[in-house]
């Protein structure tokens, strides 16, 4: 049985890689031993399910200095871990400019195969930022340090085949790339019809109403103003449309204070099991964002065969969604006229095939 060591963010909470870390680690652990490295704050199910390695004990002066530089701190932690635990594979699930680079360097130093995961339109994501300091930080982390991590890694995991041309253009060989998305996981044998009825009754949404959902992080940089305007236009023109908005973030209170109550139901941050009710209750979904990799808020409604209306948030969104919009008018028109196309979920995103793609990657690299 191979030992797979996953370098994580220090915070694996509900809002920070918790779902991806748990599901991918669960897939690995069906055939391999999995250790999570570096996690300081974790959800309860992560703590119960996986061995978590973090640096304990008193630090030397050198180690204290190293801890001030994120990449050096991660490399130092990995090297100590490797000497004591002797893993067979190193994996970084996100943060290619820090975790990815640390895994790539540690792998090269020790001769251990390394896997890094590209979670966004990596070479362009800095362009979506308006704050100059944040823009520069993203450019350095992704376009410079991230490029180095890709060069050093044994394998680069992509979320969608649409990312391949961009990486090839930047000099990376296709043999180094593997397409394997984050898993989609919901309870089997869901009675969508019953769930739709009971959820609508609980939220006071009429059975014959057309219901539109939005399930995503409600941050102000997620084009919340466009979603807000689209909702207002729809409510003014069609009395039989309702909205359900699920999520939390720094824009939640702004939306709550400014959207009319009654036909707009805000349910807050929901556990994944509860999200199934929202997917069942709604007829279509809207996702507004400037930049995304492979957004759960897009692929999960597709899994339930619901149409998704989305802003252009990157090459993966464009590859998956037919209903790409650029304004609140376009969103409201698609909703009022019910013209949104149902896009099929690609085969590689289906749970069974997705699971096998990850397991094959590990077996190939070993």
**Structural domains: how many:** 2
* Average pLDDT metric: 89
* Widest sheet: strand ordering: 5-3-1-6-7-8-9
Unreliable residue stretches: none
The percent of residues in helical segments reads 40-55%
What fold name stands as the CATH topology of the largest domain? Answer: Rossmann fold
β-strand percent reads 15-25%
CATH first level of the largest domain: Alpha Beta
Distance between the termini: 11 Å
* Principal-axes shape call: globular
**Rg, Å, rounded:** 22 Å
CATH architecture field of the largest domain: 3-Layer(aba) Sandwich
Largest sheet: 7 strands, parallel
Number of helices: 15
* Count of beta strands: 15
CATH evolutionary superfamily of the largest domain: Glycogen Phosphorylase B
Structural class estimated from helices and strands = alpha/beta
Order of helices and strands: EEHEEHEHHEHEHEHEHEHEHEHEHEHEHH
Q: Can you put this structure into words, describing what you see?
A:
There is one protein chain. Helix 8 crosses helix 11. The chain folds into two domains: 3-184 and 350-365, Glycogen Phosphorylase B (Rossmann fold, 3-Layer(aba) Sandwich), CATH 3.40.50.2000; 192-346, Rossmann fold (3-Layer(aba) Sandwich), CATH 3.40.50.2000. The protein has helices spanning 18-29, 44-49, 61-66, 70-85, 96-110, 132-152, 164-169, 192-203, 224-237, 252-258, 272-281, 296-303, 315-320, 328-336, 351-365, and strands at residues 3-7, 11-12, 33-37, 41-42, 51-53, 89-92, 114-118, 155-158, 177-179, 210-215, 241-246, 264-268, 284-287, 308-311, 323-325. The protein is of the alpha/beta class. The strands form three sheets. Strands 5-3-1-6-7-8-9 form a seven-stranded parallel beta sheet, sandwiched between helices. Strands 12-11-10-13-14-15 form a six-stranded parallel beta sheet, with helices on both faces. A two-stranded parallel sheet has the order 2-4. The protein is globular, with a radius of gyration of 22 Å.
């Amino acid at each position: 049985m191979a030992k797979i060591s996953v370098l994580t963010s220090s915070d694996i909470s509900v809002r920070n890689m918790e779902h991806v870390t748990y599901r991918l680690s669960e897939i690995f652990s069906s055939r391999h031993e999995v250790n999570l490295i570096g996690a300081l704050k974790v959800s309860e199910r992560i703590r119960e399910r996986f061995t978590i390695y973090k640096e304990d004990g008193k630090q030397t002066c050198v180690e204290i200095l190293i801890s001030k530089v994120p990449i050096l701190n991660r490399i130092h932690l990995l090297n100590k871990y490797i000497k004591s635990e002797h893993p067979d594979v190193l994996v970084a699930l996100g943060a290619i400019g820090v975790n990815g680079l640390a895994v790539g360097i540690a792998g090269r130093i020790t001769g251990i195969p390394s896997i890094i995961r590209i979670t966004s339109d990596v070479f362009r994501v800095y362009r979506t930022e308006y704050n100059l300091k944040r823009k520069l930080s993203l450019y350095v982390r992704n376009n410079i340090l991230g490029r180095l991590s890709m060069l050093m890694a044994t394998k680069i995991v992509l979320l969608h085949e649409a990312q391949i041309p961009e990486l090839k253009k930047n000099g990376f060989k296709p043999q180094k790339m593997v397409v394997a998305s984050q898993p989609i996981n919901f309870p089997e044998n869901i009675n969508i019809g019953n769930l739709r009825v009971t959820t609508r009754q609980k939220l006071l949404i009429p059975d014959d109403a057309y219901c539109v959902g939005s399930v995503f992080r409600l941050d102000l940089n997620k084009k919340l103003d466009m979603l807000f305007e689209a909702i207002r236009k729809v409510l003014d023109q069609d009395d039989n449309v309702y909205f359900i908005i699920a999520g939390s973030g720094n824009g939640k209170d702004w939306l709550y204070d400014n959207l009319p109550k009654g036909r707009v139901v805000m349910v807050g941050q929901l556990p994944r099991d509860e999200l199934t009710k929202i997917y069942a209750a709604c007829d279509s979904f809207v996702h507004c964002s400037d930049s995304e990799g492979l957004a759960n808020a897009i692929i999960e409604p597709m899994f339930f065969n619901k149409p998704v209306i989305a802003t252009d948030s990157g090459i993966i969104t464009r590859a998956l969604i037919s209903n790409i919009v650029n304004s609140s008018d376009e969103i409201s028109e698609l909703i009022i006229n019910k013209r949104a196309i149902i896009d099929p979920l690609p085969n590689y995103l289906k749970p069974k095939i997705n699971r096998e793609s990850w397991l094959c990657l590990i077996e190939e690299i070993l």
